[in-house]
Amino acid sequence: MRARVFVTLKPSVFDPQGTTVAEALHTLGYDSVSDVRQGKYFELEIAAATADEAKRIAGEVSGKLLANPVIESYRIEIADQKA
Amino acid sequence: MTFAIVVFPGSNCDHDAYHAVKHVLGANARFVWHKETNLQGVDCVILPGGFAHGDYLRTGAIARFSPVMADVVKFAEAGGPVIGICNGFQVLLESGLLPGAMLRNRSLKFQCEHVLVKVEQTDTPFTRACRPGQILNLPIAHGEGNYYAEPEAVAQLERNRQVIFRYVTPAGEAVDAGNPNGSVANIAGLCSDRRNVVGLMPHPERACESALGSADGLVLFESVLGAVKEGAVHAR
Lengths: 83, 236
Fold this sequence. Notes:
By secondary structure, chain A is of the alpha+beta class.
């Protein structure tokens, strides 16, 4: 089972890298891009019988290691390999 | 008195710390590889600066799981003095021994310069020889030293007087002009609620001899030497 984990800074946390990327896009003329938030993306291969089980494990490792709950939040997607 | 200097793969200020406490301060010092699990006979633990485990994932995030950290946590919980310098501070934050987290510097630059830091509290093992309000000239060298905690958490740190070092201007004011990295409330260093665990981004170990531009950092190590000698702090 493959899990995708998206880790992003919480909305309340300033993202200096995202802001700089947004400024660079404005320099390129993309004024329509009003904001950029930079984050991290993980793909996990998990030996689990069900999608719920995979999601539970992905949630555990995200809370323990992949994200720092002080500054970051995460979102998990389970991709069924048969699909 | 014996200092343990923990060496992670990627630590690069371990020898600076060793030199400062052994050759300048005149105490005993030994390196402890991150895979060791024995801090016996140690009076103070130093988590040095550097890029432990390459700073992969987040600064300090992998080092927190190094085998030695279980013993460092035990030592800290028993009341032993622990100081995390720069990357060592980041490890303390990730391990939960100190609250908060580090963000990329607001400049997005690796800031490498001397800064002024005000000693806000002198009732910790690492600041007891300082004068209240003393201003120290210390170097910083970091890309992620922008301290962050939720407003309620910062308020609690202030209430508990856990902010022990603040970035200041030459006039001693903790204002934006004196803040090199964007840290909330100009926080440069913290102590734990029991005050025996201290973390700071500036490098006192690199400022222990005037030939290096400043000897202001030595007072931190003199402080803990005095605290241990007088029995004011120890792991029990």
